[in-house]
Amino acid sequence: MKQLKHWLLAILIIPALAIGFTACGGDDDDDEPGSSDLVGTWYGKMQYSLHGATKTHTLTVTFQSNGSGSLSYDAPSRYVAGEFTYKVSGKTITCKGVTASTDGSIDEDFEMKMTRNGDRITTQSTWPGYVLTRDGSVTIDSSGNEI
Fold first, then answer.
1. Using the 8-state DSSP alphabet, how is residue 123 labeled?
2. What is the β-pairing status of strands 53-63 and 68-75?
3. Whole-model pTM?
4. What are the strands, taking DSSP E only, across 22-105?
5. How confident is the model over 49-78, as pLDDT tens digits?
6. Within 13 Å of residue 65, how many CA atoms lie on the same side as its CB?
7. How far apart are CA 69 and CA 82, in angstroms?
8. Residue 147's closest CA among 55, 59, 47?
9. Closest listed residue to residue 112, CA positions, set 142, 77, 71
10. Over the stretch 22-45, which tens digit does the pLDDT of each residue have?
């Protein structure tokens, strides 16, 4: 499965990146990407039960100091990988770029908004409700409640 994910990433995302990133516009009131302690990898997890079996979805987001980043979303029946640029404005992080999924879909206009509150980042769009931490210590249920 891991080889399939890496192959999928190479086949679907690399050509899409050749088309180009959707860049973030500048704004004088915005913080520079990477100027805070945002840089690094953040992890989130959701668990729920379906027909007596526990299912787990994970979201991993990595922010680079140069204003770029990557993500992976791993669910029992779907894997998504993406590359993006990001902009920080106050507590809001806006990521724009491209994603590719094991279902064959490519989203060249990917956008995800997140809110940072201390040592947690909460997703507001795309995969809403995930609580990302550096150590992956927070797990939510399908209603967004911490478990």
1. E
2. antiparallel
3. 0.79
4. 40-50, 53-63, 68-75, 78-89, 92-101
5. 888 899 999 999 999 999 999 999 999 999
6. 3
7. 8
8. 47
9. 71
10. 444 444 444 556 556 899 999 999
Element at 5 (helix H, strand E): helix 2-8
- pLDDT at residue 20, as a whole number: 44
Task: Read off the tokens for 48.
Answer: 């729920």
Dist. CA 1–CA 92, nearest whole Å: 34
Residue 136 burial by CB count (10 A; 0-12/13-18/19+): exposed, middle or buried? middle
Cβ pair 110, 96 in contact under 8 A: yes
Q: How far apart are CA 131 and CA 82, in angstroms?
A: 19
